[in-house]
Amino acid sequence: MNPSAEGTAMLASAPLDILLWGALPYVMVVVLVGGLVWRYKYDQFGWTTRSSQLYESRLLRIASPLFHFGLLAVIAGHFFGLVIPMAWTQAVGMSQEFYHFNALLVGGVAGVGTLGGIVLLIYRRRTTGPVFMATTKNDKTMYVVLTAAILFGLWTTLASVFEGEHGHNYRETVAPWFRSLFIFQPDIAAMATAPFSFHLHTLVGMALFVIWPFTRLVHAFTAPFHYLFRPYIVYRSRDRDGSRTGGMGRAGARGGRSSTARTSRTAARRGWSAVGTRDRDTRNR
Amino acid sequence: MRVMAQMGMVMNLDKCIGCHTCSVTCKQAWTNRAGTEYVWFNNVETRPGQGYPRRYEDQEKWQGGWELNKRGRLVLKAGGRVKKLLGIFASPVQPELKDYYEPWTYDYKTLVDAPLGDDFPVARPKSLITGEDTKITWSANWDDDLGGAPEMGHLDPIVEKVRRESEDKIKFAYEQTFMFYLPRICEHCLNPSCMASCPSGAIYKRVEDGIVLVDQDKCRGWRQCVTGCPYKKIYFNHKTGKAEKCTFCYPRVEVGLPTVCSETCVGRLRYLGLFLYDADSVTAAASVTDPQELYDAQMDVLLDPNDPAVQAEARAQGIPEDWIDAARRSPVYALAKVYKVALPLHPEYRTMPMVWYVPPLSPVVDLLRDQGHDGEDAGNLFGAIDALRIPVEYLAELFTAGDSDRVTAVLKKLAAMRSYMRGISMGNDPDDSIPEAVGMDGQTMYEMYRLMAIAKYEERYVIPKAHVEQAHDLEEMGCSLDFEGGPGMQDSSPFGEASGKPVPVAVETFNALRDRQTSGSAPGQTTLRGRVNLLNWDGTGAPDGLFPEKPFPVKPGGLAETPTVGEQP
User: Fold this and answer.
1) How many Cβ pairs closer than 8 A exist between chain A and B?
2) What is the mean pLDDT of residues B112-120?
3) Which of A48, A235, A237 lies closest to B242 in CB terms?
4) From its phi and psi, is residue A4 left (phi > 0), alpha (psi between -120 and 50) or beta?
5) Of A60, A236, A273, the CB nearest to B206
6) Could you report the predicted ipTM of this complex, rounded to two decimals?
7) With B461 labelled, which of A276, B8, B162, B244 sits at a CA distance of 20 to 30 A?
8) Which residues have a Cβ under 8 Å from the Cβ of B67 and sit 6 or more positions away?
């Protein structure tokens, strides 16, 4: 498991490893980016949080911030663990024990918070009638993958707590592989030596990113940071074709709209749907 | 000075009989869709009353609108940008469905389906949210006509306030009370706090006519606007996950037609027209320290369309000539600034609302008449307005941030007009002392009477059309055939309900109309499983369940149709 032997290791890897750790990540990125671009063009109208706060807010008010803030901490932890090389933290005098302790403590707390949040949210979704009625199959699939990713991630963390000193140091296997992906020299051998729990977490994680553009999770990619900088009052001209342009830049692009261009970009769907929800009372059908 | 045009509305509350025609026609036009069952872009409240949603005026609770911070700067009451973003995961003060009401329909089918028995079948209420049996406990106008006021009247936030500030009590005993109706739509504010609250920047004010709209493509459902609007006139469509609001019927206004609520108003109490205003001075005007001076500040923002300097500046800003002309003839400008009888609703929210109200004189007249006095005598009316402190204080809390003198002045103008014109129609010489008592001359008072009492259609609605040279931009479509409107599509697309692209209004209306005219079946037939929703039934065809089924077996239409999935890329 010497990370320096990249080139030879790649050739020597098992075909399955090449597939999982050499090809799949790029497939995932293509689907993620392609899916996001496609959905941004095709389905701006469906690009929303689909909040259910109108139906129920008592539980949501606890569970949703718990989950989301926990998740933000988890993302920060992943960044720290995967992107920053071990050599750097050692160079600033951070011992392996200290790093590990911190990672486990912060990561553990964030992970448990996130898990607790999503468990509460799923409980709420299942038990609150209107919220459950508004849950699509797409949502259910997404919840399975998302929860699995969190569970398996927490498992890797907990495993290293119990294994203690003899635990697996992912900063020598997963992290170099992760960084190597960006220079298109995937360090397959390093990843292949990581334990099964990490493999599982990574695979489920990739599955999550693959389905991401096609679920309600997309709302994360339009996190409204620009709110901090935009003026409070927004004026917009009636003349502007505002439905597709993001900023004010294309104002007045009048003549450039042909109906054929419209057709190709417009989803075919019905204009309106009837009031109310599907009847749950099957007695009178 | 940056001159901008703003479509505005004035409602003459004296004429409102509380028939809810505006609400119903608005709902049929705009919110008879899934996800908006509980939404009334236009609603009519009985005041005193809690309003819709319940107690929306209690801003200590709902945190809507603007306030001044310690340094005297205008800030959102619900908090600054950072606080709003931190609270984005669960909006801290968003009204729930129970604060509006749980929409319902009735199980009409059992009326004809129920097996023979000793008991009469009952159409039980069914929730439109869960589809299950429900108990109706509240609605958008539950306390209509002071219904339940002896028990619940004190829950009106304005009643609470007036009671705190005055030793007298608002009495809800039948003989001692007063009431009037308050129709409400979006205020299309000059300084909208919903817009300022929107993290995505999806809410915008149209440069041409000031109509505030939500870009359905850009809205991401963060629902901060619902908190931000102090009038609670932004609604969350729980099926699409997007915010929706009154559109000022922009597709109608653009072609010179009045809004649906105005057009269908039985009392003809609504006026539509243009304001010219100085966009650069709005923030300063909304930041005036004393809330009672906000009315004057708002008046100063409105520009005189007859002023040549204003006209020149308007031309320089690209406002077309016929729009400037329409602004000169604007009935809303006349009522708000020339006659000064129209007042803004809750100016203390600092949003600079552009829907104005002529406060009702009727509570005063009714009381005089009930006590056996001549309710049209100027002296009686003036005396009564001064004496009847409670109704006046209540109106002042609604329209002038508590400044009773201002409301008194308006009511006296209305009383003077009433009395002056009675004298004329009785064949007496005009008594010019009456208009003089309220600071007007006879000629102006007569013109005000023409506008307010005769209220000809073309004088009530002065709506300049959007321009022919811009016509192509108003077309929302290249060709209506680009959109699939028929029943071929699934309700629930793979990304959740109603994803994809919203179909433009014109196409939607076209298809809905065509369906209703040609299909022979009532809308809602498939989803309501043959139950009749009379609210949506327009008389076309006979929906399943309206009559008993024929004796020979018929396949139930709702189940046999499996929608063919259209092109889903």
Assistant:
1) 299
2) 89
3) A48
4) alpha
5) A236
6) 0.81
7) B244
8) B74, B75, B76, B77, B350
